[in-house]
Amino acid sequence: MKCTKCKGKAIIKLPQHNARFCKTHFEEYFLNQVKKAVKKYKMIGKDEKVLVAVSGGKDSLVLWEVLHRLGYNAEGFYIDLGIEEYSRHSLELCRDFADSRNLQLNTVSLPGLTGYGIREISQKTRRTPCSACGLIKRYLFNRLALERGYQVIATGHNLDDEAATLMGNITRWQTNYLSRQSPVLPSNHPSMVKKIKPLCRLTEKETSSFAVLNGINYIYEECPLAEGARSILYKKTLNYLENNSPGTKIQFYLGFLKQKTELFPQESETDLSVCRICHQPTTLEVCAFCNMMEKLGLEKITL
Questions:
Q1: Distance between CA 108 and CA 115 in Å, rounded?
Q2: Which CATH class is domain 37-269?
Q3: d(CA 303, CA 301)
Q4: Domain boundaries, the chain
Q5: Residue range 213-233: mean pLDDT, rounded
Q6: What percent of the chain lies above the pLDDT cut of 70?
Q7: Among 101, 215, 237, 288, fewest CB within 10 Å belongs to which?
Q8: Average pLDDT over residues 189-201
Q9: 3-state percent breakdown (helix, strand, coil) of the chain, nearest 5
Q10: Residues pairing with 216 in the sheet
């Protein structure tokens, strides 16, 4: 198998692009896909400070590596969710990654903040673990970014993640979510930090290959609390389609982005106020996070 670019020995085949690459040209391709996404969707200004949400998984660590290589001022943020050995191992991997590259890693412990891990919070508030986790992460990412002067929050959502989310929203015809699904979630309030997904054009296979080829150690196991999540079913379905018709995922996702405005017009912006407890953006008197903390019998959280 020969590299499409240099005719040297190829190490990876990408059927969706009818291409094969050696290590050098695969990395070039990978970086170019990120550059293309950043430029097309105006994700980051060169002088903006970026907070990368890292979990210890391949996507978030690869994202941090790529943004660092491309010269962006990118620092990491890890939330310890208190999931026993899984959290301990993932935090260790994030620290090792940051230390080996002399990068700044911010950390917050959920048990340290609240006295509870995500499993206990899920049980006490009667939310599914994924729902509670998503709410907490979104809140803490935005709040830390705002308080410490980051202009952009970057997450490691890849093409598989975005296509699975799109499939889920379409199967349930959640037009409010469809109208908002985008590689960039702009700030619509002075206390809301812009969120971006620079890996949106790259598959899970490509990010894992990039990690392995560059010696990036990451946690291989799925989160033990994610078992039964619908997103896993959607990913399996899309993988079946992709294996039988290469290019399905990228065509599905990019085709949606191209037609989104016409198919699902953006709804009028919701007026946001600020939470009376933490002063973060919300549509209610008390934001969902503080409401959750009240159910746990906790006061305002200090980072």
A1: 13
A2: alpha beta
A3: 7
A4: 37-269
A5: 89
A6: 98
A7: 215
A8: 96
A9: 50, 15, 40
A10: none
CA–CA gap between residue 253 and residue 128 (Å, rounded): 27
Comparing C-alpha atoms, which of 63, 54, 127, 120 is closest to residue 92? Answer: 54
Spatial contact of 195 and 184, defined as CB atoms under 8 Å apart: yes
Q: How far apart are CA 201 and CA 78, in angstroms?
A: 24
75-to-22, 23, 95 alpha-carbon distances in Å? 30, 26, 12
- In one letter, which amino acid is 151? Q
Cβ-count burial of 97 within 10 angstroms (0-12 exposed, 13-18 middle, 19+ buried)? buried
**Would you list the DSSP string of 55-79?**
-SSHHHHHHHHHHHHTT-EEEEEEE
267 Cβ neighbours under 8 A, 6+ residues apart: 176, 179
Written as six digits, the tokens of 194 are: 């812009």
Q: Name the token pair of 116.
A: 């509870």
Q: pLDDT value at position 268?
A: 57
Cα separation, 81 vs 116, in Å, equals: 9
Q: Secondary structure of 116-138 in the HEC alphabet?
A: CCHHHHHHHHCCCHHHHHHHHHH
- Is residue 249 within 8 Å of residue 16, measured between CB atoms? yes
Residue 267 pLDDT more than 70?
A: no
Cα–chain center distance at 167: 17
pLDDT band, very low/low/confident/very high, at 143 (cuts 50, 70, 90):
very high
What is the rounded distance in angstroms from the CA atom of residue 21 to the CA atom of residue 7?
9
User: Closest Cα partner for 133 from 184, 172, 81?
Assistant: 81
Nearest to 193 by CA among 126, 143, 227, 133: 143
Q: Strand locations in the chain, DSSP E?
A: 12-14, 19-21, 49-53, 73-80, 105-109, 152-154, 184-185, 194-196, 273-274, 281-282
Count Cβ atoms within 10 A of the Cβ of residue 259 and give its class: 0-12 exposed, 13-18 middle, 19 or more buried. exposed
Task: Please state, in angstroms and rounded to a whole number, the distance separating the CA atoms of residues 118 and 101.
Answer: 30
